[in-house]
Amino acid sequence: MKILEQWQNGVHKEVQILSFDQYLSMIEKNPQLFVRHSSQYFKDMFDYFGQNADGTFKIFSKKHPQAPAVQGQSRTQHEIYQSLQNFLEDGYNSRFLLLIGPNGSAKSSLVKKIMLAAEEYSLSDEGALYSFSWIFPLDQYTKGPLGLGGGKGKETASESFAHLEDREIAAIPPSELKDHPILLIPQNIRQQVIDKMFEGDKKRLASLKRSYLYLGDLSQRNKMIFDTLSKSYHGDYKEVLKHIRVERFFLNKRYSSGAVTIEPQLHVDANLSQITMDRRLASLPASLQSLNLYSISGEVVLANRGLLEFSDLFKRPLDTFKYLLTTMESKTINLHGILTELDIFFIGTSNELHFAAFKQHPDFNSFRGRFSFLKVPYLLHAKQEQDIYSEQCELLKERSRFEPHAMEALCLWAIMTRLRRPIANNYSDKKTGEIFCKLNPLEKALYLAYETIPDRFENKEKQQIKKDRQELMTEFDNDSLYEGKFGISPREVKQIIYDLSNNNTSINFTDVLEYLKLLHDKKSEYDFLNMPS
Questions:
Q1: What is the value of pTM for the model shown?
Q2: Which end of the chain, C or N, has fewer beta carbons within 10 A?
């Protein structure tokens, strides 16, 4: 019984049904929370969970059974966050964030962590999201010009229909795009309301003034219903808003609610179908049955007011996502001549091979102006690399155990496969470059992870190495062959760990070296073994 009580308490906490007047009262008390577009929402989400001591964001380091913590990738994390801040300046998600890197570099993991954090955030009081449905009561609960029937019945002239029981309702057309309830306020009045609410926060107001919440309108179907009811009620908006039931919704990838992934397979991302003749809607007022109402569907629709991921974007033919060019610029999608406004945080992934091929396409320059390309390389830090495999080693410890330094050796080797030899001319001080050129791959990997400098260097050289550490770390960042673009994949390292565990109950440093020696003979299987040093 305690379990049922706990569950019931949770349901009461999460299920929120409000009349429009009740929702307006909430907005007035906390406009910062309830009047925000998706870029503001996701930026607030990052801030809500905060940062770790090393400056990375906690949403990526949180443990979750569906997604292990993302190790490293600090630069990419901050680029995502900075992009959200830039979107606030534009008032909408003005660019598509495309994460690019080699296979297994944590691109999909980064997106998955954002989605999981968004799901958790939407369950919190600070992350509450609301949309609305239209409520049309049975004829015994209303009377008047709407075609719901007349005669003697319960009069509800001053009450909302939001809290009616299902048995008292004839039809409930939902808001498929999860329209923000504030859009129900006519634009000229809405702008005055927003101006008043945010008069003390000029920066936030400036962002809102460029957003659809200030300049936009309801989606087409909601607009048609609103206008028809307004005519039926002779312009009395209070009577129209009696039909509004404001509902809390939650972001959830599993149920494709504001967190959606589009896989590479071919299909349509959004579609349109007429619903006026649908028998399920025969209970609508006669004035609405005469309208050509349409239902829209597809991943883009499901993702509105949330996050839409395009997994392996460039594995799809260009024509299947070319609509993004217009969508990123106009914030709308055109469905058979019907312009539908969107509020979506667009993000996607691509491996380096497909991205390189796409750069040769004649339309690449058009996409470049609307996309932000964020690199997600393999890690170059041995300690972070080792953390990737800690859970795997823990699960295997009953049958096999890594002795001290064995896993460290494997991870140092993995890092070495991803490094390039320093080039003296790349450095602002050529002498510094010449000093770095003396580092062999192992010494470079050890320095990047532990800041250890070989004793063979003179004190003056050691000081110079410490002083210009950042230059060494970023030397090839803008090079087409950047460090971390090539080398052994973490997925392949995990397979090596399984292979070693299958053959040894105790794995020592020598076992690792013997395995790697055999692996180095397989040059036909690993491209990085054929690269010049």
A1: 0.90
A2: N
